[in-house]
Design brief:
Layout: H1 12-42, H2 63-74, H3 79-86, H4 104-116, E1 124-126, H5 139-152, H6 156-163, H7 190-201, E2 207-209, H8 212-225, H9 229-236, H10 258-270, E3 277-279, H11 284-295, H12 298-305, H13 326-336, E4 338-339, E5 346-347, E6 354-356, H14 359-371, H15 374-381, H16 395-405, H17 407-427, H18 432-460, H19 466-475, H20 481-494, H21 501-505, H22 512-524, H23 527-535, H24 540-551, H25 553-568, H26 572-577, H27 586-596, H28 599-633
Helix pairs in contact: 2-17, 3-8, 17-28, 18-22, 18-25, 18-27, 19-22, 25-28, 27-28
Length: 634
């Protein structure tokens, strides 16, 4: 029977009371839903938007922010790589804006060039492979791992044997993408070859090509002369309006002032990676003299190079430098300059013989060969380039055009990639899922056997010490679980039960609060049912199992949910008594994941970890509600 009658509900005071109650319920729900939405939004973020606390991520409704996340992914969260490739001076990815006024003709020629030029693998890097700031696993890295699994199998040990690597698990398989410099040279390992083959199959719009113009200005000129062009002009006697007007010449002689030629020579000899340098035939005689002075005899050179030359004059100038070996070391020393320790003579490639080998100049040569002259190119494109050196790489426009065509796929990738990172970690690491299922199943099973038996005894048989026993059981709730962890650990170690499921189950088999709840529910059951069952000859076990347990499904569901939640969320005790990785539960693995990954991945792991409890409550809510309502009605 309702407390307020149907007629009474029509009064304005009652309606105002109901409205106030619903208002408070809505406000209470908002205080719970809003933080949850913040966590959901946080699980989709990366470094560019991590500091913005919003219930709905900006990139879902703002294409500019989606573009910023995309560019951050393309350049593997490295702003200096973006500035060098685009020849820009952006201070943060959150300040990056889409380009304006892109030239369709230049964009089309760039597509043809990168598809036909057959550039070496070190000429470009691939995006979505490395996330050092947000510490997630981008789509490119996931695809690379999948590629390795297809080739070598899902056992990481097979990958290590095949490629000579030392990855402990799939989670540590990563790629530290760095620009090609004098310190960071291309590798000649099987792993790097496998990666280069994979990189060549990735989407062309995920690549960013090395820009020598950007590298020259960002890594050499600006650290040397400062960010303001006035200081550079004063040192060089030039009149540039900005650093954007400066281009890295192909040869030293193409520079204007003596100071510019000096900078060019120093940059090429000491900073630029040897793969970007070519030495022309004018240096051949000096090269032979250098090899003879360093190796003394041709037999020594052959032994070190693994060749069979009969004289130093047969050794050709190196075209593309090798990746490893004595030949590479000699080549670098010849470009920089090598002083004979005996004669003190300096052997060095003449500066006039040095030439830049870069993607920019290859692209410019491609255009000049196709159009014949700069005037024709300007006429066809409606451009106004003064020199061929003014033509830059249209990578920014190329990336933006691909972005416009794939915005929906990018949103899906950014929304799901942190969840994929968590799922991949869970699936490919140890027995976390299996151990958790076994542990939770045993915890629920023992809780539904031990606790009902103890509560049944207290309810069925009226002992004089019943209330003392209940007081003792309730007293166990006064001590936090952390207090009992050390005694439990010492006891389990004494019985040699560490790193077993028994260590997880035994300390929590009996629960004082669960026994108290069950006794109260059992007391509410009609005594006449027990008397009738006894008169019909039912045994005590039959009465307990078929009568008491059958009528107590609601409260048993509550006890089962509590046992499942306690076991599923058990982290500290599970980690203390099971330090062997083979016995780690899901919570322990997720804790380790949170130490290795970023904040967004942590949010995603918390949401995924909450799903099993939510699903169980969703399916059992009717039974649980009956367990709450029925005893109160009794």
């Amino acid at each position: 029977m309702p407390i307020i009658s149907t007629i009474g509900r029509k009064h304005w005071k009652v309606r105002a009371l109901f409205a106030g109650m619903y208002l408070f319920l809505v406000i209470g729900a908002a205080t719970m839903v809003y933080p949850f939405m913040l966590m959901l939004a946080g699980s989709t973020k990366s470094a560019v938007d991590l500091k913005y606390f919003e219930a709905i991520p900006r990139f879902l409704h703002d294409d500019t922010w989606l573009y910023r996340k995309h560019i951050e992914g393309v350049f593997n969260e490295s702003l200096i790589d973006q500035n060098m490739a685009y020849d820009r001076d952006d201070t943060a990815f959150e300040n990056v804006n889409p380009p304006e006024g892109c030239k369709p003709g230049l964009l089309g020629e760039w597509r043809v060039f990168i598809s036909e030029a057959q550039l070496p693998s070190y000429a470009y890097q691939c995006g979505y492979l490395h996330a050092p700031v947000s510490r997630t696993i981008p789509g490119g890295l996931r695809a690379f791992k999948q590629d390795l699994m297809v080739k070598f199998g899902k056992d990481i040990a097979q990958v290590n044997r095949a490629m000579g690597t030392e990855f402990e698990t799939w989670n540590v398989v990563g790629l530290n993408v760095q620009p090609l410099t004098r310190q960071n040279k291309p590798m000649a390992t099987l792993f790097s070859k496998t990666f280069n083959d994979f990189k060549a199959r990735m989407p062309a719009a995920w690549r960013y090509y090395a820009s020598m113009d950007g590298y020259y200005k960002k890594m050499y000129l600006k650290p040397l002369y400062g960010l303001k062009i006035e200081e550079y002009n004063r040192e060089h006697g030039t009149r540039y309006d900005s650093y954007n007007d400066i281009r890295l010449a192909r040869r030293c002689t193409e520079n204007g002032t003596a100071k510019e030629r000096e900078d060019w020579a120093q940059f090429v000899r000491l900073t630029l990676a040897p793969q970007w340098i070519r030495v022309e035939g004018a240096a051949l005689a000096e090269y032979h003299a250098y090899l003879q002075a360093k190796h003394d005899t041709i037999a020594t050179l052959n032994k070190r190079y693994g060749t069979d030359y009969s004289a130093f004059q047969e050794v050709p100038l190196i075209g593309e430098p090798p990746l490893v070996g004595m030949a590479l070391s000699d080549w670098e020393a010849f470009i920089v300059g090598w002083k004979d320790p005996d004669t003190k003579r300096l052997y060095q490639a003449p500066v006039d013989s040095l030439r830049i080998f870069s993607v920019e100049w290859l692209f410019r040569d491609f255009l000049m060969q196709k159009y014949g002259s700069l005037e024709e190119l300007n006429r066809r494109w409606g451009a106004a380039y003064g020199t061929a050196a003014a033509i830059g790489l249209p990578q920014r426009d190329f990336h933006y055009r691909w972005f416009l065509e794939n915005r929906r796929a990018l949103r899906i990738e950014f929304v799901t990639r942190n969840y994929r990172t968590v799922c991949e970690y869970i699936l490919f690491h140890g027995r976390g899922i299996v151990n958790t299922v076994i542990y939770c199943g045993l915890a629920v099973l023992t809780a539904l056997l031990v606790n009902p038996l103890a509560a049944y005894a207290l309810s069925r048989y009226k002992m004089s010490s019943t209330y003392k026993i209940l007081l003792f059981l309730m007293a166990t709730m006064a001590f936090p679980p952390m207090v009992t962890q050390i005694p439990n650990f010492l006891m389990l170690r004494q019985f040699n039960l560490l790193n077993t499921f028994a260590a997880l189950i035994l300390p929590g088999m009996a629960n004082g609060y669960a026994i108290f709840l069950l006794k109260g529910f059992f007391d509410s059951l009609p005594r006449e049912l027990y008397e009738s069952a006894a008169l019909d000859g039912a045994s005590e076990w039959t009465i307990f199992w078929q009568l008491t347990m059958a009528l107590s499904k609601p409260i048993l569901a509550v006890i089962a949910l509590g046992a499942f939640t306690g076991a599923y969320a058990n982290f500290m005790f599970a980690f203390v008594v099971c330090q062997d990785e083979k016995m780690w539960t899901l919570m322990v693995w997720l804790y380790q994941l949170q130490q290795m990954r970023g904040q967004s991945v942590m949010y995603a792991s918390l949401i995924i970890a909450a799903l099993p409890t939510f699903v169980i409550f969703l399916f059992c809510q009717n039974i649980i509600m009956r367990g709450i309502v029925v005893p109160s009605e009794k």
